[in-house]
Design a protein that fits this description.
About 50% of the residues lie in helices and about 15% in strands. By secondary structure, it is α+β, with helices and mostly antiparallel strands. It has 3 domains: about 80 residues, Acyl-CoA dehydrogenase/oxidase, N-terminal domain (Butyryl-Coa Dehydrogenase, subunit A, domain 1, Orthogonal Bundle); about 110 residues, Butyryl-CoA Dehydrogenase, subunit A, domain 2 (Beta Barrel), CATH 2.40.110; about 140 residues, Up-down Bundle (Butyryl-CoA Dehydrogenase, subunit A, domain 3), CATH 1.20.140. The strands form 2 sheets. The protein has a 4-stranded mixed beta sheet. Strands 2-3-7-6 form a 4-stranded antiparallel beta sheet, with no helix packed on it. The longest helix is centred in the last third of the chain and has 29 residues. Bound molecules: flavin-adenine dinucleotide.
């Protein structure tokens, strides 16, 4: 497929750049209300839910146009929409597997950030091996009674709703006894405890469910079809949005590395030059993998194995890139923010620690291996 920008793409990019330069709340959207307001503004401009069908409040735009918006937002450092999980992969899962009632009830409020969403999949003993999850959802006629614990729940404290995987058949093989249901987070049986990370922030939480209630009408797909639905969620999680933005952010980081090497007097060192060149090539590889995803999306297909590969690749690239930054910083790397030479207020140190956190989410896992094995190699699960 020819991915060179058409005249229309170029005009669209100019329009997006102008809009962002006029409206972007760079660094200003801090409180929950401000972040929701920024999200709504992006939505009303047509830059959120770009690929969603118009009948559910989406904009019916092309994957190329969506990639352009992500590219321009990353370039300008504009804050992302607050309901990223909902827009990126929970909404698309409901669009594929949900009932008409679910689509009408949930999608528009997700797009406008009126309701914030989280993903209740991982558990303390079910991370990479997600199918080992133990949270139970017992059939109570018109609802399920949910008991168990989730972990690594991004946006947990601000979420109104969660997409939950729970065991509904304890006797079936582990992949076959799981169901997917939507859970209201604002109920007495749901307790969210934020987890503090090494970076100092609390991006994710533990979630404890004690006799929590999930309505039967909120079951996604059929009973015990949860694994299949989880695969749809994860393909979207890795495939769209995230990788296009990261490609630009990693490119900017490589350019900053060059500047850092010059500032530290290391730019003439052949080993440093070689390492920076390698990172540059790796970002270029990431861009080319994203082109494969874009080709697939432009053809109207679902995200495929390259979306898992690109996340895996990104996870190790970002570690190598920030490791190199700290090596270039030398003794200054350990200085804390606020001291004279704590370069850019600890920006590289923060990014280095974050690359370790993010890498867990992008690391090799049974789920990823499954997707790759099934879709590239054609192996059974
Ligand atoms: C920033 C971030 C946000 C997240 N947000 C969410 C969220 O919103 N909702 C959610 O449900 N989850 C979320 N997760 C969880 C994430 O998607 C992974 O499922 C989880 O981090 C992996 O599980 P674990 O941490 O228990 O690691 P484990 O699965 O215990 O893995 C630990 C280590 O062992 C390795 N390993 C595992 N299995 C094998 C094997 N068979 N062979 C060889 N090596 C193996 C792994 O590569 C890893 O290095 C998030 C994680 C992060 C880091």
């Amino acid at each position: 497929m020819d991915l060179n920008p058409t005249a229309e793409d170029r005009a669209f990019r100019t329009e997006v750049r102008r809009w962002l330069e006029t409206n972007a709340a760079t660094g200003d959207a801090k409180t929950l209300d401000e972040r929701k307001a920024w999200h709504r503004k992006l939505y009303e401009a047509g830059y959120v839910g770009m690929l969603w069908p118009k009948e559910y409040g989406g904009w019916g735009r092309t994957p190329m146009q969506q990639a352009i918006v992500q590219d321009e937002m990353a370039r300008l450092g504009a804050p992302p929409p607050i309901n990223g999980l909902g827009i990126g992969f929970i909404g698309p899962t409901i669009i594929v597997h949900g009932t008409d009632w679910q689509k009408q009830r949930y999608l528009k409020k997700m797009l406008t950030a009126e309701e914030i969403w989280c993903q209740l999949y991982s558990e303390p003993n079910a991370g990479s091996d997600l199918a080992s999850l133990k949270t139970r959802a017992e059939d109570q006629g018109d609802h399920f009674l949910v008991n168990g614990q989730k972990i690594w729940t991004s946006s947990g404290p601000i979420a109104d709703w969660g997409i939950l995987l729970a065991r509904t058949d304890g006797k079936a093989a582990k992949h076959k006894g799981i169901s997917c249901v939507l859970l209201h987070m604002r109920q007495p049986g749901v307790e969210v405890r934020p987890l503090r990370q090494i970076t100092g922030s609390s991006l994710f939480s533990e979630v404890f469910m004690t006799n929590a209630r999930a309505e039967k009408r909120d079951l996604i797909g059929n009973l015990n079809q949860g694994w299949e639905i989880a695969m749809t969620t994860l393909a979207h999680e890795r495939g769209t949005g995230f990788a296009f933005k990261e490609q630009v952010l990693q490119r900017i980081a490589v350019e900053d590395l060059v500047r850092l090497a010059r500032e530290r007097g290391r730019a003439a060192d052949p080993v440093v030059r070689q390492e920076i060149a390698r990172r540059w090539i790796e970002v270029e590889l990431m861009r080319l993998m994203n082109c494969r995803t874009l080709t697939r999306l432009e053809r109207g297909e679902e995200p495929g194995p390259e979306s898992s590969l690109v996340k895996l690749f990104w996870a190790s690239l970002t570690q190598r890139l920030h490791q190199l930054a700290l090596e270039l910083e030398g003794p200054y790397a350990t200085l804390v923010a606020g001291s004279r030479r704590a370069v850019e207020d600890g920006r590289w140190q923060q990014a280095f620690l974050w690359s370790r956190v993010g890498a867990i989410a992008g690391g090799t896992s049974e789920v990823q291996a499954n997707i790759i094995a099934q879709r590239i190699l054609g192996l059974p699960r």
